[in-house]
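Hi, here's the filled form for the chain we discussed.

Project: internal
Contact: R.S.
Residues: 364
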Amino acid sequence: MISFSPSEEQQMIVTMVKQFANDEMRKVYRECDESGDIPARVIDTAWQLGLVSTSIPEEYGGLGGEHSAITGALIAEELAWGDLSMTMHILCPALVVYPVLEMGTDEQRKKYLPAFCDEKYRTATAALIEPRFGFDPYSLSTTAQPDGNGYVLNGQKCYVPLAADADLLLIYATENGSSQGFIIEKGTNGLEIGEREKNMGIKALATYELSLKNCRIPKENRLGGSKGCDFGRIMNCSRVALSAMAVGVAKAAFEYSRDYAKERVAFGEPIAARQAIAFMLAEMAIEIDATRLMTWEAAWKLDRKEDATKEASALKMYADDMAIMVTDRAVQILGGHGYIRDHPVELWLRNGRGFATFDGMAIV
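And the returned structure, exactly as it came back:
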């Protein structure tokens, strides 16, 4: 049965992450959104918390903690409450670490995981989304063709976080009709990184388009080797992560608009006393809690190694709609103040609108 009480260790992690989000991320998130840049100090401080490296076994240099989707969801929510752009940047290496940890060969784990156990942040990323109408992660246009002792990859990707600085990239491509992962190291011939994308939201997170033009890699770089990877599970882990982040962004917007409504006086009373405002806030709170519980259920099934496709798919659709609804209503509650940058609700609306697009950009 699902437990709604975090373990003592999970509660300690949540408290630590919440304090970091409040003390570090909340102090600079608006500045980061305006400048499009995140201070290295924030990233390095977050990395030293061990949010990713803790799950790496001791034999590869990690702390040997349990890799848990529920713990990952708790972390993702609290970080996203601080700021979504910084959250995706901080957790970006997990896009390579977690699939290699769970589905990589022994050789892949030995080769790649130790690099993520140092105190210094190391950039790695994954490329799933393609710049075309009707994108389907289970029917990718990017292809991986076996060729002798390796593979040749061709295709285009977009919304690839930190691609220009990444030492490792996990590229998802179609091989014999199924989506598989392929590890590409920085500087590989045929891998071309485009200009930084100009996005409506997550403006502090650097995302890029990339092209693969007869990009040749050794067969050993196929995630999972000859066995391959369970792409469906990877997608479910991504959906849970993104949904948890959606809860965090929505919670931030809800709390701000609730407090504003209590303090804003019109016609002799706080606007929170108006039925229209009170009902909006109530529905926002209900939808946030509902999404959080759905996230925990899907994460619980993932931790039990069960098929969570039904739960994760329904969750992702629900979370996408919830994030838009809550952040949009936060702007409405602030009225004209909601549309100006003196208040953060417009930022959360821009970020919340993107969740329907962020497939594969986070993982637990």
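Let me know if anything looks off before we file it.
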